[in-house]
Amino acid sequence: MADTVLFEFLHSEMVAELWAHEPDPGPGGQKMSLSVLEGMGFRVGQALGERLPRETLAFREELDVLKFLCKDLWVAVFQKQMDSLRTNHQGTYVLQDNSFPLLVRMASGLQYVEEAPKFLAFTCGLLRGTLSTLGIKSLVTTSVAALPASKFQVVIQRP
Amino acid sequence: MADTVLFEFLHSEMVAELWAHEPDPGPGGQKMSLSVLEGMGFRVGQALGERLPRETLAFREELDVLKFLCKDLWVAVFQKQMDSLRTNHQGTYVLQDNSFPLLVRMASGLQYVEEAPKFLAFTCGLLRGTLSTLGIKSLVTTSVAALPASKFQVVIQRP
């Protein structure tokens, strides 16, 4: 239904708008737009984190929280689950989505890989914001090897 | 569920972001941000218009198209129907939502009425964009008398 794609359409418009009015099209300006998007994602993630039905889940371990992101958060936002979750058991987690919805509409091809960060920044923030609401400070980065597969690396920041 | 509020959260962030970086906080700058939001709404409306299940409906009359906006479009975006639709039968339609979701979270009170246009511009564009996909050129304006009730006035542009 339309509400499934509403978020995707709005997200594309947001990306287009931020890049259209970019005062500095060089790496500095690009970085600023990415951090604006990441910040928006962070605040949306914080707000969503308060809404998701986490009462049903007892978060005994950090891994439970990450599983919650891969399942509940991903379903709420993208109507699908994350494809895999790996960890080194030392606070680093790699979440992989083999067909990340915000990249699916991009034509695949190596030449588009450098455009991918624009379409991932908001979601990095979303993960960081949701984790923050759940009491976990983190750094979230991303990598794309073959579109539309995406990896999100979450590194937990210990106090 | 969270996906219902995702659009609302993202919309708030978009409004906040556009006003945070407003180069000119006077009426001119305000007007530019409103038109940026309206333009984003227009393009999202165009895209949504192509997706909504309009095959089920035979649009024999203009009024059918307006009813489609009040029902199908509103449910897809806001999970509720518009509260009333009136027309002068000369191409002007007034669509009223007694509890417009994007204004519900604002505290009610006369002092907030002047903030309301920011939260209505995207939706004016959304209506105009959906109508455009359905082959109707229009002008959409809005008025708020008592928050969170909102009126959208659609004036059809005849060729």
Automatic annotation (TrEMBL), chains A, B:
GO biological process annotation, one example: endoplasmic reticulum to Golgi vesicle-mediated transport
Family: Belongs to the TRAPP small subunits family. BET3 subfamily.
Organism per entry: Pteropus vampyrus (Large flying fox)
Quaternary structure (record): Part of the multisubunit transport protein particle (TRAPP) complex. Heterodimer with TRAPPC3. The heterodimer TRAPPC3-TRAPPC6A interacts with TRAPPC2L. Interacts with TRAPPC2L.
UniProt function note: May play a role in vesicular transport during the biogenesis of melanosomes.
Stated name of the protein: Trafficking protein particle complex subunit 6A
Record-level GO cellular component terms: cis-Golgi network; endoplasmic reticulum; trans-Golgi network; TRAPP complex
Highest taxon above the source species: Eukaryota
Subcellular location: Endoplasmic reticulum; Golgi apparatus, cis-Golgi network
Keyword Nucleotide-binding: no
Keywords per UniProt: Endoplasmic reticulum, ER-Golgi transport, Golgi apparatus, Phosphoprotein, Transport
Keyword Transport on entry: yes
The encoding gene: TRAPPC6A
